[in-house]
């Protein structure tokens, strides 16, 4: 029986302790270095240890040694089914030695001449010694050792010459005659052997023979020459067959109660985590206990490694049964092992490995080129992604994206995928082409029409620039690894019949999205995850830009406004960190989706605000307390469907669903119809859950204490049948014992269980037993027998127990399958709780904003107005005490015409960029449904928010700062509508002053006069304000105030928004504050004054020159001329040329007056001009122009 400590806990054997210490005890760097120098020399001492000198018995029945000699070593934490033990003697007692290297391979055993009548001879000297260095100890060498000594050292005893009494080292055939010489010889032998080991690993190549430096190298495969395959042992062949297909993956190879890592993987384990590394025949080896597998895998994945899990697929009993077949191959003696899964950072499914509540996505991308109606080459994308923890698949098609990949960039910014799959052949790591020819090759390839040509350079730049630096890029071979649409159809038929509605729609109308799904499923198949995830059927379409229903936040806006991350602090300080008060993991994931897609309709915004307002205060605190500690029901439901849910997680699922039902019942009973409409609707949507059916099915106490599901009687027919078979045998055994006591007249006869020989009748030695009884063991006082019937019945009982174990294993799967039928109902309940949790989170965030904070008033008049608005994140970060709040108005005010655009000027570091961001964040908070950090707020729902803030280049894309500015500005001009909010910060700073001012002039005028959208335009171009403000009432001049001490070159920033244009940007003052030497600042100030004087003189001369041709008051301003030309284009009038005052001018001419509809267009134009010029007090000029044009 297993020995125990004083406290009653099992006592670990010495072998068990040494194994665990070897696998788990790390070394310090210095200790590791010291051991690497001394380990080889120390190994020779092992041969001098008299404890290691053992006579080997020729055991005929190795699996069942005698009961008396089956010592506590059997209780060692190394399963007999996993390791084949050999038996040797030590101090006259049998013990078991783990032959890890043999892996169930039969080892030749020479006869032992010293055995006399089945017992070991005690004559002086040593019997024949079979010694295996790997068996004796695990060598903690830090350097890889190819082999120790010969696998078998045969030392023949010679009693006549007395050799057996000589020191062991003198009996070796090697030349050294002293221990020191032996140690040196061993070091030399090891070094020589290491030079020869696995030479093909010195020049690594993939399966196609390509080196890592070659174009198209596949890092996932390894080429092993045929000569090496022939030299492999069966175990090595088994390992390298798996490792050669997963060369870039750390392979955890199951060996008994341990997972072992070999060769390069062992080196990684040693270098990264200081795990002890030793040598396993020809391979370096490190290992970890089975019980700590999840912990170690989590650490490897956190360091960026992919992990493959190889498990044993049979027990020792199953192996022995297989060996009784007709197979005679040596390799068949190996335990069957298979790859059971590959774990990557983007496809984590085990709750023990998931470190965050937010979703982690694996995304597949396929690019397609096609011609539009005009013959222009257009680019579309098919995208599919999956959250493996919840088995939620999403897909979409991005049609006709622009050259800057704006829609693709927005999608990537929203998802932030951890792994990106793409077709090998174009740009990106693992591509088959490089350089400038990649773009032309991808776009012109015939495969580009179905997405099988890879991705273009422009797409790769967008991916690399938008995704996180930790993203894994995985290139898959076209069609074979990344399925095209046709292959995807065939393969998906294996998963579904009929297909989920979303997949069927993709097959019918969006083949590019189906191709992306094919690439994703193909990849998941290599990870052994496809069936577990896809079979759930959770496929849906995803819209990165939801026009009309939500506020569109594109990629630059998400980055510029720090929605999810800041450049300095990561997630801390972002808007989402302000909102992130959800109590449940699935609530946090939904809240992040809300932050990506704020609401776009006034009715939906007000309904959510009503619910948030209701949840503020004591009501919210009471409801939130009921959600604290709720498990991640969404993820656990996915694991139940896959049949891979741990018992503890299943119990947590049942408890969590019970808590969810009680939570909804609490809202219904406490608040009823007093709750807002949205909360009432959610309560009504919550389904009826019958959890008690599953709670009553098994023993909850055993499940909690032992982690096993034991069904109650009557709840599972298969278990009842297996239990009845055991009870029948047990009843016979009880009766048989009673009969034996009566037959032999001895009441002291009892059953004795020794090892696998159970139910031995222990009888006093004085009792005579029939010859038909088989004696198994004996002591001086008792003998133990099996009756003829007992032998059969014990076998029957063992088989019945095995059947019960198999039934219990299958019972867990059957129970999960029964529960999975209610998946849709359970997910509906989870969705309801998640939304209420988000409402509670917004209520908490609203309360945390401090005073003043208000609920925004939603109107349809086209205005944005804030009173005493603060930046939500900055104000909270500073405690809200020293942040200066400001008022700002855009659009209509009090039913009067007002400026839609604010022209913002002010000093450097005066707070202009902060003001821009806080206006945008105020709008986003309001449309999410949260309170706004302002005294009062009135907004019209915005359909899209555009930002151009900050100056940065894009080295990867080969774009300068100005090019990045222009690309973002072009997207704004193309996609903005009158309901959009546009924020531009110092547009044109990346080029020369005149070019920048001209670009800023054109963009600002276009936004005001033609689009009419709301916005803020921040600039340092003072002349821009002079040119536009006097001619356009749609612009309101505002500036950030400051106090300037010219004598001291000191600027005091007031951060107060005031009406008017700033006189200067005070760049010299800021330079002085930054520590620029005073002489440099003085010289710069003088030069700046000269530039300003020259500019004023040029403008004065230009005005005087213009006045000689015509009266200056009669000149049309440039913006009005632009408006006039634009209206002509809108009217689609054919211009005629009339010579007036010596120059040609496009007018409608006499032909226009002949048609009534053209006259109507002209009337509209003239009315517009008169109204606009009247507002500018320049009526005579418009009269003159109209007279000229209508002649």
UniProtKB/TrEMBL annotation:
One GO process term, biological-process aspect: mismatch repair
SUPFAM superfamilies: DNA repair protein MutS, domain I, DNA repair protein MutS, domain II, DNA repair protein MutS, domain III, P-loop containing nucleoside triphosphate hydrolases
Methyltransferase keyword on record: no
Domain of life: Eukaryota
Any matching Pfam family: MutS_I
Region feature (Disordered): 82-123, 157-185
Keywords of the record: ATP-binding, DNA damage, DNA repair, DNA-binding, Nucleotide-binding
A cellular component annotation (GO) from this entry: MutSalpha complex
Keyword Nucleotide-binding assigned: yes
Domain DNA mismatch repair proteins mutS family: residue ranges: 980-996
Ranges annotated as biased composition (Low complexity): 165-175
GO molecular function, one term: ATP-dependent DNA damage sensor activity
Coiled coil: none
Free-text function comment from the UniProt entry: Component of the post-replicative DNA mismatch repair system (MMR).
Family from the record: Belongs to the DNA mismatch repair MutS family.
Protein name: DNA mismatch repair protein
Provenance organism: Coemansia brasiliensis
Gene assigned in the entry: MSH6
